[in-house]
Structure prediction request, 189 residues.
Amino acid sequence: MEQNSFILTFPQLLDSEVCEGLIKWHGEPSNVKTEIAERESRRDVQKWLTEDYEELWKPLQKMKMDMAEFYQGRFASAYRGRKKLLAPESKIQRSDPFGGGFHAFHSEISHWENCSRVLVWTIYLNDLPEGEGTTEFLFDDVKVQPKQGLAVIWPAAWMFQHRGNPVHTHPKYIATGWYWYPKEEFYYK
Prediction:
């Protein structure tokens, strides 16, 4: 585990067999939520993994929750509620060479509909050549090089502006999603 500010990386957190299984699953036809982003700042194919694909969903879900628990142990103030953070979605995303990816700096909290996101997670499912497809953090002078199984977790807040830099030779595959604050009514009573 490496730490740069509040951005943590975990080498080889997800087994290569699961990474390769997720890449294969992404390329197969399935009846799941799928979005194809085709705009100037973003081009990729996103598919949401469901519990129906248990052999892939279970190890990914366990890894996500273990990573959140570790993060909260390191930074207890990230969430001080009584319940566990939620991480219901797992988005598997492919960015193709020559234009694929999300190249505009952005944060994961940008309006009221997503303001209950607290943390972001990403796992690189394949290796890319040095300098390609890095995740770059604007204010932290950090670039994360995609390596199969490498996981990254960071705050969703506006000061963690990030982007996916272009890929030139191979598609980039990631699993990604968010940790959300759970609804906790009457917390202060």
Q: What stands out?
A: The radius of gyration is 16 Å.
